[in-house]
Design brief:
With 187 residues, the chain is of the alpha/beta class. The protein folds into two domains: 125 residues, FAD/NAD(P)-binding domain; 57 residues, no CATH class. It is built from four helices and 14 strands. The strands form five sheets. It has a four-stranded mixed β-sheet with strand order 3-14-13-12, with no helix packed on it. The chain has a three-stranded parallel β-sheet with strand order 4-5-11. It is elongated, with a radius of gyration of 20 Å. It starts with a strand and ends with a strand. The chain binds flavin-adenine dinucleotide. The site of flavin-adenine dinucleotide has 20 residues, from helix 1 and strand 12.
């Protein structure tokens, strides 16, 4: 973990570069699923098949979750999906919940709308939460699945280019400074 001291006390999850045995293979390694980019979409696309026991390699050119001003509002539907991925309750516990929206003109309320007028729902209509927490909970979930034996490799500092059937991986932030391999997804 790496602390960004000027941003309160958020602990930045890291996924440092580690040399993969695939890089030393004589022929391109074949993987079921290769996900390029460990942003919210890439991490979600990693967790979903991994929960079904499907092998996933996820590669990101950075080595940590994103930081700064990014997504802030999360609606009920994504929270329901995140619950399936094992992160919904973490999000709701940390976020600011709201169901009711209000529109003001100066100090006068001109409109009000309720996104969740009925009871009995597990999650609120919306939460507000910084994107880096969202990504942190997804990375935590990846780590928990790995600890439970799920076949996930999360590789940071790895930039990819190539085609949908062949991924060329180049590493940086590592010594020696550049090494190449290719991963050929199967199926
Ligand atoms: C300044 C800013 C403000 C924003 N504000 C809001 C907001 O207020 N509300 C809102 O809903 N959304 C906001 N967004 C948008 C939101 O952040 C994105 O919709 C969200 O991050 C998209 O997720 P993603 O996983 O698709 O992509 P990203 O979060 O961009 O993740 C993609 C990942 O792939 C990696 N990558 C890219 N190319 C390669 C490659 N060739 N090889 C390896 N890795 C690669 C990147 O480093 C990155 O980690 C904002 C975005 C920005 C930039």
């Amino acid at each position: 973990m790496n602390r960004i001291t000027d941003k309160k006390s958020f602990e930045v999850p890291l996924y440092a570069y580690e040399r993969s045995p695939d890089q030393d293979a004589a022929t391109p390694a074949c993987r079921k699923v290769v996900v390029i980019g460990a942003g919210p979409i890439g991490l979600a696309a990693t967790i979903d098949p991994a929960q079904q026991g499907i092998e996933v390699v996820v590669l990101d050119d950075n080595d940590k979750v994103s930081f700064g001003s990014r997504a802030i509002c999360f609606a009920k539907r994504p929270l329901d999906i995140l619950d399936r991925l094992g992160c919904g309750h973490d999000m709701v516990e940390k976020g600011v919940e709201w169901d009711l929206g209000k529109v003001f003109f100066d100090s006068r309320k001109v409109y009000e709308f309720d996104h969740l007028p009925e009871g009995g729902h597990e999650f609120p209509a919306f939460i507000n939460l910084q994107q880096y927490y969202f990504e942190k909970y997804l990375v935590n979930r990846v780590r928990a699945l790995q600890a439970a034996g799920a076949p996930i490799e999360l590789q940071g500092a790895t930039q990819c280019c190539g085609s949908p059937t062949r991924v060329i991986m180049s590493t940086w932030l590592s010594a020696p400074p550049r090494a190449n391999t290719s991963w050929k997804p199967t199926g």
